[in-house]
Design goal:
Largest sheet: 7 strands, mixed
Radius of gyration: 21 Å
Strand order of the largest sheet: 14-13-12-16-21-18-19
Helix content: under 10%
Shape: globular
């Protein structure tokens, strides 16, 4: 008898996916797999030799009333990530890094996605408040050669959203090979604040990757040690030229597994102004920005104190032993002076008052820690798209206590449909800092417990919640809720 677990181990095709097509499951436990290629030595890749690319803001194909229409063709192209080498990547319309959609609250966006990749896809607008039919659920697949139209009502405030593949068991590899894009949702109150804008408002997607000597991606499941090249907007260790003035950087962790703890190399502080669900109530002055897979941070860096000719870096200190230099990510080069009429107000927004919760739930996250081809679980169950794990009454406000019961393996936690508020971390109330804002993804280190609150309104239907370390989700750490 072929069980789901044995099927996942063997990598056999399971039938029953949308349209009746089989869904090929990957082998797990990437670190235990035999290497058939030679990895590139990351020390041979020149650092700060390439200029960081700024994603292209796309113009809609057409605008009708308050609706903007876009269309993408998912396709493989060649691009230079490592200097002098061409890498095959999976893209939306050939954009590397992914395309950038700027949208406005209250104005719909309709996107038609055509799949010209060799694998099924399902495109999810991460952090978006959208109907089930446009959520990109794991089994709502676009088969190769097919297409699907997604409608994003944008009936939520400003937020730093992004879109990526979510086809179950395949999302990990598709995202690793590049299938992501930026989606900035703006509103009038945000625009009135006077924050850095235009050429001084830059998204930066940070991730890791693994390459062979020819510059091609090496993908293996659960490969958290082999991915040793850091990319910023699709370039390995690039530089970015800045003027001596304020910049707004929207930081996205688009890595499959890696967590980042980011600092400026000279120890300077930045102003942390926003998180997943948009602006904080007030700026937080900090020297550290922590991002797990899928999380976002909105920061303002003021380069006006640096003389022209200064260079400094964003570095990563996550999991760096004491006494070891931090890992470089990106170099800034202050190359010119520029006028600056932007500002960072002391008050950014007012968050909605917390409603009185009506339901409390406990959610437990776990992976097999001691098995090379182990599985991922929520409440000791592997994801099954035919099963509803949690039924939620429309309009209810719920508090979920989410626990990571693993001893060594970190996780994070993402809920579709809603932005939530973090109430407690390890029993300590969260009343200030970035976690006091609107969130859709939250960190859970081994043994940690967080309490989050969300109100489930707007749409009924089935949505998933899961660990947003893509490889863990592909291993089964995902569950279904139904809002009725």
């Amino acid at each position: 008898m072929i069980t789901r677990r044995n099927a996942m181990k063997a990598g056999v095709a399971l039938t029953g996916a949308v349209g009746g097509a089989g869904l090929l499951l990957p082998a797990l436990g990437g670190e235990a797999q035999a290497r058939t290629t030679t990895d590139i030595d990351p020390t041979t890749i020149p650092k700060f030799a390439q200029e960081m690319t700024v994603p292209q803001v796309l113009r809609p194909d057409r605008i009708s009333g308050t609706t903007s229409y876009y269309s993408f063709e998912m396709q493989e192209v060649q691009t230079e990530i490592i200097p002098g080498k061409q890498t095959t990547v999976r893209t939306f319309d050939g954009h590397w890094p992914g395309p950038w959609i700027k949208a406005c609250s209250g104005h719909r966006v309709v996107v038609t996605q055509k799949n010209n990749l060799p694998t099924p896809t399902s495109i999810h607008l991460h952090g978006g408040h959208v109907p089930e039919s446009s959520d990109g659920t794991p089994m709502d697949l676009i088969q190769p050669g097919g297409e699907k139209t997604y409608t994003y009502p944008n009936n939520q405030p400003n937020a730093n959203l992004w879109f990526h593949d979510h086809a179950h068991h395949i999302e990990s590899e598709n995202v690793f090979r590049g299938l992501t894009g930026i989606y900035t949702l703006m509103d009038l109150p945000e625009k009135a604040l006077g924050l850095p804008s235009g050429a001084y408002d830059i998204p930066i997607s940070i991730r890791d990757a693994r390459f062979d000597e020819n510059g091609q991606f090496i993908y293996q499941m659960n490969d958290f040690r082999g991915r040793n090249v850091i990319l910023a907007n699709g370039k390995a260790w690039p530089y970015f030229e800045v003027a001596a003035r304020k910049y707004r950087f929207r930081l996205y962790n688009t890595a499959n597994m890696r967590f980042f703890t980011l600092k400026l190399s000279d120890g300077s502080t930045v102003q942390h102004i926003g998180t997943d669900g948009g602006l904080l109530e007030a700026p937080v002055t900090t020297d550290t920005i922590s991002l797990t897979s899928g999380e976002r941070a909105d920061v303002v860096i003021d380069f006006s104190k640096y003389p022209v000719g200064t260079t400094l870096q964003i570095v990563n200190t996550e999991n760096v032993p004491v006494g070891v230099p931090p890992t470089p990510v990106l170099q800034f080069r202050v190359t010119r002076k520029a006028a600056d009429y932007s500002r960072v107000p002391a008050k950014l927004r007012t968050l909605p008052a917390l409603a009185v919760p009506t339901v409390n739930r406990d959610i437990v996250l776990r992976v097999d820690e001691n098995i090379a081809d182990g599985m991922g679980y929520i409440d000791d169950k592997v994801y099954d798209h035919t099963r509803v794990d949690t039924t939620i009454k429309y309009g209810d406000t719920e508090v979920w206590t989410v626990s990571n019961v693993n001893q060594r393996v970190p996780h994070n936690f993402h809920i579709h449909l809603v932005q939530f508020r973090v109430l407690e971390r390890n029993g300590v109330p969260v009343t200030s800092g970035p976690e006091a804002g609107l969130k859709d993804t939250v960190r859970l280190m081994p043994g940690e417990k967080v309490k989050v609150q969300a109100t489930f309104t707007g749409y009924r239907g089935k949505y998933v919640y899961h660990c947003h370390m893509f490889d863990h989700a592909s291993m089964g750490m995902m569950a279904t809720m139904e809002v009725v």
